[in-house]
């Protein structure tokens, strides 16, 4: 049960402020929160803070702070869930959640807050119930157009408007504005996986973890039934076996409460009647046993000469994806010892870039094709480098040459191998043309760390 | 009222909860509960609220309890973390007499908690980690097989990394100790000095059980000659040598050489302490201390100088020839030229001690070199689940117990049950009784029939046993205004040789105290003082283990005088 709710921009300017219980005692609670947040010492957690008789709990979403205050000892999980749900809801109503959309839709946000929370108690957060009460319409910055194709990296003849939608296609307000009757009925299904990997300095794999989600964003009228078919051979748990091959396996799955699972056991089909808006249909995770090889392997070799202070790092990056796939936006971040003075580099490809910034080396490769190998040779001057005593050059990594972390995106690829076979709608919504269904598979790195 | 479904169900629930005879009318309450639990299509907020309400219900019989638990079972698998945690807490509290049910529930909640720990939302991750730590206090082996999930990743914020390191330290067991130590060792060379130091302290924690491996790792870290690493390693060594004396040899071999890399106060103190206590095994100990003595004039930290005095004197006892000269110089400096009075006093004290004879010095300074039992005492902090079950799924684990205690002072005096603080935690520093009242207290009716013996200390258990075996000999009320100042009262009672066994904190309601006194014939007087919140009088109950009326009356009058004086002071 919350007392106040407010949204601050990343610099601390209040965008929205709503007082539910009137017990702020005349203080500027938002100002108090921001001062406390910026004044925290390094090892204190900012998630829940306390001042006088008030607890401040917040989440960060797209750079904004969504903060709730309470004076009671309530469940942190419920409160954090509420804040996340509010963020999703605001995103659904305004198109996306950022400073711009909030400032354009202030009236809508206040109306939403009025309906969702009454005197600090949650009434409902379901789109179904809310649409009956919300009158204000969302203001969008520019009308959505399918002609914005330049952000998608496709080549030549494959560019057909009906086959591809830009990644911003889903970020428009969910509820139809009353004037625009030619609203396209669309549904977007994303299979998104986050990959966390830890590789030791001798190349052995210490930890691999995949967290996957199947997210649905539906612009269809509620009540349309849909069926999502997943790969039939996918097994849950270590002991199950389906199909003939090694199959696709996940350790654990959990579903949204509205998903009907009668056909899941037999045919791996999920049935649901999604409300309008965003919904996470299924969550799964997999550790330790990936069916496909890891996407990237790094082979570093380090030479440093303590006498002259010269450090030479040769990085060979090998991509183990299948040849037709590619990785986009690959960035390698390598912290360097203190006092690095200069950098000279030799890179194997023209579109790569490497630079020194904030005590680390940033190597940027916009596109890496599966099966390829890329290398870079970096030479640096590090005067006064401390380390184990010894004369002459050595090959062990000096102190401060930190673990390399990679960040990348793998479009059209899932690390676990799980794929959506089909997405069928049970009945045609009246009047409109065939609704468009967009299905996307995407993996991206969460924390891909390779120790030197 | 939170949105729970249809209107009439809400009405029923309101009626049931407002009914003061709710516990008596249990059949109706039970029906309402059944209806509420089975209510379909409740959204996650309604479910969380219902689970919260049900915390107040006390099932009357075991089968009722298991009925309710069965109905709630499905909530444990919900996709909403708030509902899962609410259900877990309800299970833990309802099943407080069934530890195996509690353990079962904690096994079931392992999956959702681990998923929350790897969630994209950092805040959820943090809350989940705090709860994992809470569970590990009672079930240390619970997450041991999932230690990999708690490895820190490079991009995480600092506060999450610290929590993960703490968790790693607590879930160590024989199978995973190798990997966990390797991982922690990697963190010790992290660029962030704070994080590296936290990792080293964690290794120190693990070292109490797996001493050899950890000491080896710490010795290797010393070889890196990094200032922020060396100081923390030496501090860890000092704590370790105290709790695990078997590693003293290894530590002494690792120490030489690290004095060059320590600049901060804590590190220097730790190093000097080690050199003083175990100096006989470290060949160059006197020379290192000599360096410190040479530079004592430029030493900025008085704590270091105090430690230096003690350590040098200790080393002098075992290696007199090498230390005599510099001990003299140090004492001379501290007494003649030192400006910090605490250091000077200590120097003076040691000088006079030396004058009194070397045996006196040995008696005072040769303390035990280690106390392994202290480690065992701390390890027994494996608390039962019931001690923290009511804090689960609240803000308490997120803040941590210590911080929550300071915070809850802000909440104002809540109704707390009568608490008996530990007999060992006497507040020795209290406000001094103003002079006038001291005199009035001492001018007690020196009843010739009553001589209370000073310093007769009863243990808490003995007091309790005796209290329950005796009947109340005398009971009366004493007019009282306002709250009690426990420290003042305790000191005043001490003056008349009445010992305090236990006393509630100031502001506790109701306020209670238990006193004991013994007179020279061995007769015990056990007293209870009780101050109810709304009353303006204090109730005194006295029990005597030998029925003697005159001594009882004298005791009562002594007590009344003290109470009266204290009562007068604060107004």
From TrEMBL, chain A:
<dbReference type="InterPro" id="IPR022775">
    <property type="entry name" value="AP_mu_sigma_su"/>
</dbReference>
<dbReference type="GO" id="GO:0005769">
    <property type="term" value="C:early endosome"/>
</dbReference>
<protein>
    <recommendedName>
        <fullName>AP-4 complex subunit mu-1</fullName>
    </recommendedName>
</protein>
<comment type="function">
    <text>Component of the adaptor protein complex 4 (AP-4). Adaptor protein complexes are vesicle coat components involved both in vesicle formation and cargo selection. They control the vesicular transport of proteins in different trafficking pathways. AP-4 forms a non clathrin-associated coat on vesicles departing the trans-Golgi network (TGN) and may be involved in the targeting of proteins from the trans-Golgi network (TGN) to the endosomal-lysosomal system.</text>
</comment>
<keyword id="KW-0813">Transport</keyword>
<dbReference type="InterPro" id="IPR050431">
    <property type="entry name" value="Adaptor_comp_med_subunit"/>
</dbReference>
<dbReference type="InterPro" id="IPR028565">
    <property type="entry name" value="MHD"/>
</dbReference>
<dbReference type="InterPro" id="IPR036168">
    <property type="entry name" value="AP2_Mu_C_sf"/>
</dbReference>
<dbReference type="InterPro" id="IPR018240">
    <property type="entry name" value="Clathrin_mu_CS"/>
</dbReference>
<feature type="domain" description="MHD">
    <location>
        <begin position="184"/>
        <end position="451"/>
    </location>
</feature>
<keyword id="KW-0333">Golgi apparatus</keyword>
<dbReference type="GO" id="GO:0016192">
    <property type="term" value="P:vesicle-mediated transport"/>
</dbReference>
<keyword id="KW-0472">Membrane</keyword>
<dbReference type="GO" id="GO:0030131">
    <property type="term" value="C:clathrin adaptor complex"/>
</dbReference>
<dbReference type="GO" id="GO:0006886">
    <property type="term" value="P:intracellular protein transport"/>
</dbReference>
<dbReference type="Pfam" id="PF00928">
    <property type="entry name" value="Adap_comp_sub"/>
</dbReference>
<dbReference type="GO" id="GO:0005794">
    <property type="term" value="C:Golgi apparatus"/>
</dbReference>
<dbReference type="InterPro" id="IPR001392">
    <property type="entry name" value="Clathrin_mu"/>
</dbReference>
<comment type="subunit">
    <text>Adaptor protein complex 4 (AP-4) is a heterotetramer composed of two large adaptins (epsilon-type subunit AP4E1 and beta-type subunit AP4B1), a medium adaptin (mu-type subunit AP4M1) and a small adaptin (sigma-type AP4S1). Interacts with tyrosine-based sorting signals on the cytoplasmic tail of cargo proteins such as APP, ATG9A, LAMP2 and NAGPA. Interacts with the C-terminal domain of GRID2. Interacts with GRIA1 and GRIA2; the interaction is indirect via CACNG3.</text>
</comment>
<keyword id="KW-0653">Protein transport</keyword>
<keyword id="KW-0967">Endosome</keyword>
<dbReference type="Pfam" id="PF01217">
    <property type="entry name" value="Clat_adaptor_s"/>
</dbReference>
From TrEMBL, chain B:
<keyword id="KW-0472">Membrane</keyword>
<keyword id="KW-0813">Transport</keyword>
<protein>
    <recommendedName>
        <fullName>AP complex subunit beta</fullName>
    </recommendedName>
</protein>
<dbReference type="InterPro" id="IPR026739">
    <property type="entry name" value="AP_beta"/>
</dbReference>
<dbReference type="InterPro" id="IPR016342">
    <property type="entry name" value="AP_complex_bsu_1_2_4"/>
</dbReference>
<dbReference type="GO" id="GO:0016192">
    <property type="term" value="P:vesicle-mediated transport"/>
</dbReference>
<comment type="function">
    <text>Component of the adaptor protein complex 4 (AP-4). Adaptor protein complexes are vesicle coat components involved both in vesicle formation and cargo selection. They control the vesicular transport of proteins in different trafficking pathways. AP-4 forms a non clathrin-associated coat on vesicles departing the trans-Golgi network (TGN) and may be involved in the targeting of proteins from the trans-Golgi network (TGN) to the endosomal-lysosomal system.</text>
</comment>
<dbReference type="InterPro" id="IPR012295">
    <property type="entry name" value="TBP_dom_sf"/>
</dbReference>
<dbReference type="InterPro" id="IPR016024">
    <property type="entry name" value="ARM-type_fold"/>
</dbReference>
<keyword id="KW-0653">Protein transport</keyword>
<dbReference type="GO" id="GO:0006605">
    <property type="term" value="P:protein targeting"/>
</dbReference>
<dbReference type="InterPro" id="IPR011989">
    <property type="entry name" value="ARM-like"/>
</dbReference>
<dbReference type="GO" id="GO:0030131">
    <property type="term" value="C:clathrin adaptor complex"/>
</dbReference>
<dbReference type="GO" id="GO:0006886">
    <property type="term" value="P:intracellular protein transport"/>
</dbReference>
<dbReference type="GO" id="GO:0030276">
    <property type="term" value="F:clathrin binding"/>
</dbReference>
<dbReference type="GO" id="GO:0005794">
    <property type="term" value="C:Golgi apparatus"/>
</dbReference>
<dbReference type="InterPro" id="IPR002553">
    <property type="entry name" value="Clathrin/coatomer_adapt-like_N"/>
</dbReference>
<comment type="subunit">
    <text>Adaptor protein complex 4 (AP-4) is a heterotetramer composed of two large adaptins (epsilon-type subunit AP4E1 and beta-type subunit AP4B1), a medium adaptin (mu-type subunit AP4M1) and a small adaptin (sigma-type AP4S1). Interacts with TEPSIN; this interaction requires the presence of a functional AP-4 complex. Interacts with GRIA2; probably indirect it mediates the somatodendritic localization of GRIA2 in neurons.</text>
</comment>
<feature type="domain" description="Beta-adaptin appendage C-terminal subdomain">
    <location>
        <begin position="452"/>
        <end position="564"/>
    </location>
</feature>
<keyword id="KW-0333">Golgi apparatus</keyword>
<dbReference type="InterPro" id="IPR015151">
    <property type="entry name" value="B-adaptin_app_sub_C"/>
</dbReference>
<comment type="similarity">
    <text>Belongs to the adaptor complexes large subunit family.</text>
</comment>
